[in-house]
């Protein structure tokens, strides 16, 4: 019996990553990647307790050997046995470097390189790890007749930010990270779209409504911050798009956000 395709989410903190994991877990087994077990274990238990299937894997996305080790473990958990890797229906890169806001004259080399390591190198390594699994799913699908084909094309989504397209003062390191990740997504979309993999980039243009930000922008009223569950629904919408109608980039913002 063939193993079901999985969804892989890197960066499963308490906001967007967790919401995306919950949404995709309604349709697929999910593999959750984070630096520490404490970041994913409560979510793994929640999803498994509600009838889904989730497995967590400790990995530093910027470290090639760490990520390879996590994917080997993922193969043993989700593969078909005999060293057979699973196919992937979706992969979401939601990891990011530390948010540092200060003058370029005050940055340390470590400040600068953190974002490049996690957000750019990590995005590249995650793509190398997941695209073969996404291509396998696309290949499995192409061998079937129209009625047998999967409902949704395999999808690779990158989480971006306002800084992906607009670099403001004191934001040079974060903007450089996000600009580069956007460029990676565009290149991959042009390379792998014709092979049946939908590659998309999401610009999150606003404050996300999480515990850390609950006291922010109170004067702006309800829905002035972006619901992480609403972001997850938009990611699912990207995944569910027909092959004749792929969106490469989407910008997501609350109704009151200036742009």
What does this structure look like?
By secondary structure, this protein is of the alpha/beta class. It is 41% helix and 15% strand. The protein contains 6 helices and 7 strands, in the order βαβαβαβαβαβαβ. The chain has helices spanning 16-25, 37-49, 64-78, 109-142, 172-192, 228-240, and strands at residues 6-10, 30-34, 54-58, 88-93, 155-161, 198-204, 249-252. A 7-stranded parallel sheet has the order 3-2-1-4-5-6-7, with helices on both faces. β5, α5 and β6 form a beta-alpha-beta unit. The longest helix has 34 residues, at 109-142. The radius of gyration is 18 Å and the shape is globular. The termini are far apart. The mean pLDDT is 91.
Pick out the low-confidence regions.
Answer: none
Radius of gyration: 18 Å
Tell me the structural class.
Answer: alpha/beta
- Binned, the helix content reads 40-55%
- Give the end-to-end Cα distance, rounded to a whole number of Å: 50 Å
Arithmetic mean pLDDT: 91
Total number of beta strands: 7
Descriptive terms for the model:
259 residues, alpha/beta, seven-stranded parallel beta sheet, 7 strands, 41% helix, 15% strand
What's the gist of this structure?
By secondary structure, this protein is of the alpha/beta class.
Q: What layout of secondary structure does this protein have?
A:
Layout: E1 6-10, H1 16-25, E2 30-34, H2 37-49, E3 54-58, H3 64-78, E4 88-93, H4 109-142, E5 155-161, H5 172-192, E6 198-204, H6 228-240, E7 249-252
Parallel strand pairs: 1-2, 1-4, 2-3, 4-5, 5-6, 6-7
Helix pairs in contact: 1-6, 3-4, 4-5
